[in-house]
């Protein structure tokens, strides 16, 4: 099920191709042989309309790199990697005169799955040749674009612990569950937050989790409410419930096993924009697979500047 609705074109313009393509791959990820071979095959497909590969590492000026390639004629910027790479490319491309596309080479690839693109990079590349650019609105946190979700509290803590456990013991399901147990013992108290909505409504609360979603596909996969907010171009803001140690453990377990229920485990609100103030001076923020310490307040908002994204036709999109 695609996360973006397709506009209805009564008289669609003839398709003239999406190239030249600029393909951006992260130097620090996707370096295994299988991903390398998949990228090579995808580039061969895109070369029918001219494709140029550039490697990029976090810390380098990605926006300047993209601007340079657009001046050289690139019409579509393709993020080759997982959600973190796609998010970085989307943020750097936002406001520039080219469309965003993606080749799934990461672990989860929620964004490409939500678009309905095939999970095989070579098949996804073929779909991009016939895809059409559409304007979508993106979410930002303190001006930084995110495409799937941004969160504070127990979920970023689980992600961080899981990375540490995987690094030491390998990527196994048992280790993913063990990371939840370790997080539970270390995560002592709910956060103290103050939320201010666009109309000035303010509320203070204690919660172990703030989860701001923009991906209908991801909400569906985690069996969470809020898809209607996404379709109305708003933020779906989930506030976890649980003040006791027992309630916190249940929330952790239901979150990782995808059995959270609205009302019982979390409250859902819709917002065009929301400011979050935290008692912590440097809370851990996770967004689209990335994690960083940041200073409050955190301003989550739907951006007014649209982003062009290549979408497969409804007939070709995965359902």
TrEMBL record:
<dbReference type="InterPro" id="IPR017438">
    <property type="entry name" value="ATP-NAD_kinase_N"/>
</dbReference>
<feature type="domain" description="DAGKc">
    <location>
        <begin position="16"/>
        <end position="145"/>
    </location>
</feature>
<feature type="region of interest" description="Disordered">
    <location>
        <begin position="1"/>
        <end position="21"/>
    </location>
</feature>
<dbReference type="InterPro" id="IPR050187">
    <property type="entry name" value="Lipid_Phosphate_FormReg"/>
</dbReference>
<dbReference type="InterPro" id="IPR016064">
    <property type="entry name" value="NAD/diacylglycerol_kinase_sf"/>
</dbReference>
<keyword id="KW-0808">Transferase</keyword>
<keyword id="KW-0418">Kinase</keyword>
<dbReference type="Pfam" id="PF00781">
    <property type="entry name" value="DAGK_cat"/>
</dbReference>
<dbReference type="GO" id="GO:0016301">
    <property type="term" value="F:kinase activity"/>
</dbReference>
<protein>
    <submittedName>
        <fullName>Diacylglycerol kinase family enzyme</fullName>
    </submittedName>
</protein>
<dbReference type="InterPro" id="IPR001206">
    <property type="entry name" value="Diacylglycerol_kinase_cat_dom"/>
</dbReference>
